[in-house]
Amino acid sequence: MGRRAFIKVLSGFFAAIILILIATYIYRDPETVRLTDVVRQNAGGSFLKLPDGVVHYELAGAENARTVVLVHGFSVPYYIWDPTCAALLQAGFRVLRYDLYGRGYSDRPDVAYDADLFDRQLLLLLSGLPIPGPVDLVGLSMGGPIVITFAGRHPEKVRTLSLLDPVYGPGHKPPFHLRAPVSRLMLARMLPSNPRACPL
Question: pTM for the full model?
Answer without folding.
Answer: 0.72
